[in-house]
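Researcher: Here's the sequence for the chain we discussed earlier.
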Amino acid sequence: MKTIIFLFCCSVVLGGCVAVQRQAGELDNLLEPTVVFHASDGSSILSCLNDIGSLRSREFNRYFQEAETRVNEGKDEDKLRFICLSLNDKASYRQFKQGVALLKQYIKEHPDSREELSGLMSLIDRLDKAKVTRWSGRKKMLDEKEELEAEVASLQARVEALLRDHEQNVVKIQELHNQIEQLKNIENIIKNREHGS
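Model: Thanks. This is the structure I predict for it:
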């Protein structure tokens, strides 16, 4: 009987220790600091670019108009969203330049993000130069195309003039050939008369 009471008391004590251990473990979990991750300004812009990459033109235009009206409210999230949209490939060059100007202003207003955003700004400057180079290359190609089209038109006019001249020359040659044949006929007639008389 004493053994049973002893075993019962041991199990109660041990069960209490386990319960206390569980409570202490739960308390430790509650005391552990929770880490909250805030995306940096640069990563916000880049992840936004990734999210909006597949927008259709109509959706892009709607989002851009919304962002344009909200950017004046002064919230950083709205400014970053506007910058993101201005970097989308569906943005016009004017929209792109608006976003670049806002990014420069944002960098001035947020010196703690300057280093990260300056790197992004360097990439954007390279993108701008590439766009300008592509635009000027395209303009040069269009100018060359216009010059070639004018040259082709001029050559076609010359060829047509030469063909007309050739046709006229063929007609003249045929006329001269006919006249020579007529003269030969006349000469034969005269010879035949002379021989006949």
